[in-house]
Every structure is written in structure tokens, then in C-alpha cells.
Design goal:
The structure is a homodimer of 225-residue chains. With 225 residues, the first copy, chain A, is mainly alpha-helical. Chain A has two domains: 7-150, Ribonuclease iii, N-terminal Endonuclease Domain, Chain A, CATH 1.10.1520; 156-223, Double Stranded RNA Binding Domain, CATH 3.30.160.20. Helices cover 57% and strands 9% of the residues of chain A. Chain A is built from ten helices and three strands; from the N terminus they run αααααααααβββα. Chain A has helices at residues 7-14, 21-27, 39-60, 66-77, 79-88, 99-103, 110-128, 130-147, 156-166, 208-223, and strands spanning 173-180, 187-193, 201-205. In chain A, β1 and β2 (187-193) form a beta hairpin. In chain A, α3 packs across α4 (66-77), α3 crosses α8 (130-147) and α7 (110-128) crosses α8. The relative contact order of chain A is 0.12. The interface between A and B is large, with 40 and 44 residues. Chains A, B: It comes from Shewanella surugensis.
């Protein structure tokens, strides 16, 4: 395997000196390149990112409701945001990819870049523990945390409604078509019908509201294309 | 509002003494009971639980693949498992619910119980920080972590197939009914049909496999009742 390029430069960009550089090496290794790849580190990094961002949002927005906090968190930890961070780090230049991925431009693929950022977070966590890792992630997210607002974030039902209103179309119709189970442990099946769709899309969940959100999210996916 | 019942006993059961008991009080307060309720704490607790369990699984299974780790984590942090823990704590006896929820048996509802466990985790985290919180959660999960195995975990499609085979029913049929978007950015609509259902359940996602899993998960929810 080729040696990793200019690792000291990458560490300067990341703002972190690894005690154990093999962790960084592994975090940069896609599964197409070697058997010791970054997926397990990504698994760890995903959870660490979540608690660091959750804690930051919790304290930054002492009056925000849970729904707003969750939506802001989802925005900050989504693949698109992580890929953006990866591009700032020029992470694509440092990734180890297998021949197939190299040929098809894997170093530019959003999901590969996002996964590598999570893997680096996991590597830092293993290298020096939660607090140094938290400080680093907060540095990376400084401007993003500064600019995020609760009102920017909306749930699928709201987004669907606004999307339809934007095109002057009628509002979606939600119908509970089935309820199964005992009173305290029910499952709701909800249909969401939107003009222009051939048939309603179904959402199933443990509450009517959740089932409606699931259905709305899927309708959005469909009609936004 | 009624005073919380026998809080010292609850602390003994949880295995934790709060420095700030108002945090525990808030964690036990459902949004139906007061404006200062447990949803923000639940938001925090959810992420803390995730990193504690992720870290434990990462070290307990040094050779497990990311997929197996993710499935084990999903099992350990799911609502059903959290509700089980809540029942062990007899948490329903300590919850503060509004009149409507009290009347409809909210203290037995799985989602309310699960959310309260996450809120308590969030409260402990705020009370004394990540390490004491981690130790407590690991105590609660000791036997569950001991018994979990990578092979126990299965995806919705596998679970659905096995469920149907167990009842000697025909296998589910998956059909791609729609594909929208350009080649590298498609959305797939898949129908999953199972004998005994009146109509197929639809899954929509960015890959055929994910759409099938979404549909299978919803069919499972429906037929398991």
C-alpha cells in the first residue's frame, strides 16, 4: 500500500497531534483498500459526534424544545455537513482507497468523505479520550454552531406542506387507516395522499404523529425529484 | 402538582444519588404534566446512551464488523429495551403525568417509560458529568451486554422472512414500482407484499435495499400484533 501523504500537514489542518498515528492511518483507510479499515472507528465517531453536538445545543439553546434540538442536531451531523467539513480539510487527498474506488472518483464521494470524518473523530476519542475529542469537534463546528437557529429546522410534515403551498397545490391529506394493539401499545398506519400521486404513501409507527411524519418524509422524497 | 413519591427508594433502585434532585424531578415529568418536562433531558440522554453502549460494544467485540456493532447497539438502545429497564425500576410508579395520560394508563406506555429512562440518563450526565453517568449506565446494562452476541442481530428483511417461515407462510415479495432521479442520485419505491395483508406496504429510499428494509420493517410492525 502506498504511504499516506504528508500526514503532518493533515494534522495541522485538523488541529490535532495524534499520540498513536496508526489510528489516523486506519481512519483514512476505506474498506476497499485494506482489511483494517475505518468502519469500526466510524461507528464510534458517529456516537461521539452526537453527544458533543447534543451537549453544545442543549446549553446554547436553554429554551429550545426537544424537536428543535433534534432537528438542529440532525442538520449538524448529517452526511452533507460532514462532507463539507471533509472538503475544508481536503480530506480526499489523504484517503486510502481501493483501485475500483480510486477509478470511480471515490475520494470525491460524499458518503466516503463523511464516513472518514466520523472515523477521525472515533480515532481521536481512542487516542486521548472524550474531553480532548470534544474540544476538537467543537473547534471544527465553531462557526456552524454559531450560525444555526432553531427556526431554520423543520419536520417532514411542515416541509411537505410548504413545498406544496409553494407550488399552489392542495395540502396533503392524512388518514389513519389502521390501529392495531392494546391501548397503551398501539401501532398506527397512516396514509398520506397528495394530489399528483397515483396512490397514498403509508407510514407505520407507534404514534399517529410519527406515522404521519414517516409518510410525509417519503412523499417528499418522491415528489422532490 | 403532587409531590414525587418515595424518591430515596427510587435512587436506591437506580443506584445513584443525585446532587441536584430537581434534575431527577424533571426527568420524571412527562410533558402532559408540566411545562418544565423531560423532553430536553431525553434529547441529551439518547446521545449519552449511544456513546456509552457504542464504546462498550467496540471494546467487547474487537473483531466485530461495523454492521454487527450497529445492530447490537440498535437492539440495546431501542424503546422496547429501555421500557424493559423502566419496568425493572418500577419507574411507572414515580412518573408525573397529566390527567389525560393518567387516565389512559400512560404510566404503562412503552414510549413514555423509555423516554423517562433516557431523561434520567440525561439528568445524571448534567448532575455529575460523563464518567459517573457511563458507570451507572454500564451497571444497568451489565447482564444485557454480557448476553448480547453479534449473530443475534438481524435486519428487518431477515426477521420478516424468518417470522413468515415460522408460521409456514409464503415468503414476502418485493417489487420496485418506481425509480426516480439521475443515475447516481435515485430514489426507489419498493412494495413489499405478504400473504394476509390487504395491500402492499411501500418503502421509499435512496437505494433499493434500503427501501426494501423500510417496507419490511413496517410489515413486521403490522403483522406482529
Amino acid at each position: 500500500m502506498e504511504p499516506i501523504k504528508n500526514i503532518p500537514r493533515l494534522c495541522r489542518i485538523l488541529g490535532y497531534e495524534f499520540t498513536d498515528l496508526t489510528l489516523l492511518d486506519q481512519a483514512l483507510t476505506h474498506r476497499s483498500a485494506a482489511s483494517k479499515h475505518n468502519e469500526r472507528l466510524e461507528f464510534l465517531g458517529d456516537s461521539i459526534l452526537s453527544i458533543v453536538i447534543s451537549d453544545a445545543l442543549y446549553h446554547q439553546f436553554p429554551k429550545a424544545k426537544e424537536g428543535d434540538l433534534s432537528r438542529m442536531r440532525a442538520t449538524l451531523v448529517c452526511g452533507k455537513m460532514l462532507a463539507e467539513i471533509a472538503l475544508e480539510f481536503k480530506l480526499g487527498d489523504y484517503l486510502k482507497l481501493g483501485p475500483g474506488e480510486l477509478k470511480s472518483g471515490g475520494f470525491r464521494r460524499e458518503s466516503i468523505l463523511a464516513d472518514a470524518v466520523e472515523a477521525i473523530i472515533g480515532a481521536v476519542y481512542l487516542d486521548r479520550g472524550i474531553e480532548p475529542c470534544r474540544q476538537l469537534v467543537l473547534n471544527w463546528y465553531q462557526s456552524r454552531l454559531k450560525s444555526i437557529k432553531p427556526v431554520d429546522q423543520k419536520d417532514p410534515k411542515t416541509l411537505l406542506q410548504e413545498h406544496l403551498q409553494g407550488f399552489k397545490k392542495p395540502l396533503p391529506v392524512y388518514t389513519v387507516v389502521k390501529t392495531v394493539g392494546e391501548a397503551h401499545n398501539q401501532t398506527f398506519t397512516v396514509e398520506c395522499m397528495v394530489k399528483g400521486l397515483n396512490e397514498p404513501i403509508v407510514g407505520v409507527a407507534s404514534s399517529r404523529r410519527k406515522a404521519e411524519q414517516i409518510a410525509a418524509a417519503q412523499v417528499l422524497e418522491l415528489i422532490k425529484k
